């Protein structure tokens, strides 16, 4: 019998996370209540944090939430909670605030299991009438940028002890948890979305080969590497798609670097299919060593060549990717990609790794609890 799900994840529709992909498929056979994020961020006086706080407060008190850009698999709950509350009183307040609101939305669920994609979900455990707890670990919260690491680690340790099943997105993450209840669940890919030909976007730069990246322009992106490579290859166009989440001065003022801003997920195949090579210029950090980026399989599903810095999640795909660490190496790999014709091989390598297949694995483990 399928367990219904109470999912604690990031804000629904904010970006197409692995939890959203997986739960969307599992929702075809079970009811789902989605609980928007309970913060893990360090509190600051920044305008971004203030705006986020006002938005969440407004959503928590709004009688009816606005329709998300992507249809949710069930009711979406915006909890009102004290961020990173660890005191006995703070935890009691959050347990009451979150539990009451979620129980109302989940009143009709059958044998619900909590899917906790954020350690902060531990605040509500035991107050929801859950039949089990799954910790879905897709990131290294002890190293994730912008997170209160010490508090996140304490919450994660408690969540791990209370979880009946732990699903880890990478081998490095899986190695940190008790083996008897941990399963490796690598990310999947929408191979049909990224492999079905679509027109070239009108804002794709002309006048030379294009190297492209999409994703958050965050501290773990090596913008110095991008800048130096762009200067070595003035005939290339470097397209950077994504919201700015760090200082971008390293790439500002370079004529062949084009920032296009964020784009909807459904629009990304048009870029990935029509640039000459996709790039993954990650810095070497603990967070990156533990990551399993969605864009890796999406780039491969598009069929275009991929040039990347080195990190463990490339294992299994290294024969399809050119790995470089220096601007000179990146430039040489990009030039070599212009004669690369193994698009079918890249697409074949990820064809069977669909989100539907990954969700079926997760569902089987959950329903066996």
Automatic annotation (TrEMBL):
Record's protein name: Glycosyltransferase
Record keyword Transferase present: yes
Keyword entries, A-Z: Glycosyltransferase, Transferase
Lineage, uppermost ranks: Bacteria, Pseudomonadati, Pseudomonadota, Alphaproteobacteria, Acetobacterales
PANTHER family the record matches: GLYCOSYLTRANSFERASE
Broad enzyme group: transferase
EC code: 2.4.-.-
Regions that span the bilayer: none
One Pfam family, short name: Glyco_trans_1_4
Gene3D superfamilies per the UniProt record, alphabetical: 3.40.50.11010, Glycogen Phosphorylase B (3.40.50.2000)
Gene Ontology molecular-function annotations: glycosyltransferase activity
Highest taxon listed in the record's lineage: Bacteria
Species this protein is from: Sediminicoccus rosea
């Amino acid at each position: 019998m399928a367990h219904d799900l109470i999912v604690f994840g990031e804000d629904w529709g904010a970006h197409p996370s692995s939890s959203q992909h997986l739960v969307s498929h599992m929702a075809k056979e079970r009811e789902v209540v989605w609980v928007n994020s309970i913060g893990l961020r360090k509190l600051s006086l920044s305008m971004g944090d203030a705006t986020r706080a006002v938005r969440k407060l407004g959503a928590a008190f709004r009688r009816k939430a606005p329709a998300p850009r992507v249809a949710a698999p069930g009711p979406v709950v915006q909890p009102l909670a004290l961020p990173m509350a660890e005191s006995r009183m703070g935890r009691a307040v959050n347990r009451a605030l979150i539990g009451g609101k979620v129980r109302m939305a989940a009143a009709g669920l059958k044998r619900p299991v909590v899917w906790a994609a954020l350690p902060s979900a531990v605040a509500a455990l035991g107050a929801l009438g859950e039949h089990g707890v799954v910790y879905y670990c897709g990131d290294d919260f002890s190293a994730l940028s912008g997170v209160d690491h010490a508090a996140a680690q304490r919450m994660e340790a408690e969540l791990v002890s209370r979880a009946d099943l732990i699903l880890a997105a990478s081998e490095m993450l899986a190695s940190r948890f008790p083996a008897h209840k941990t399963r490796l669940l690598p990310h999947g890919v929408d191979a049909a979305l990224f492999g079905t030909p679509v027109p070239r976007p009108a804002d794709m730069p002309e006048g030379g080969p294009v190297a492209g990246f999409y994703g958050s322009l965050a501290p773990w992106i090596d913008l110095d590497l991008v800048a130096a490579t762009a200067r070595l290859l003035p005939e290339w166009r470097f397209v950077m798609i994504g919201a700015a989440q760090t200082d971008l001065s390293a790439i500002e003022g370079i004529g062949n670097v084009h920032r296009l801003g964020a784009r909807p997920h459904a629009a990304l195949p048009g870029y990935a299919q029509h640039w000459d090579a996709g790039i993954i210029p990650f810095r070497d950090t603990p967070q990156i060593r533990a990551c399993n980026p969605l864009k890796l399989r999406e780039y491969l599903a598009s069929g275009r060549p991929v040039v990347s810095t080195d990190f463990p999640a490339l294992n299994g795909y290294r024969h399809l990717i050119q790995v470089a660490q220096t601007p000179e190496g990146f430039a040489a790999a990009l030039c070599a990609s212009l004669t690369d014709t193994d698009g079918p091989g890249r697409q074949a390598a990820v064809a069977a790794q669909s989100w539907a297949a990954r969700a079926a694995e997760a569902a089987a483990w959950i329903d066996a609890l």
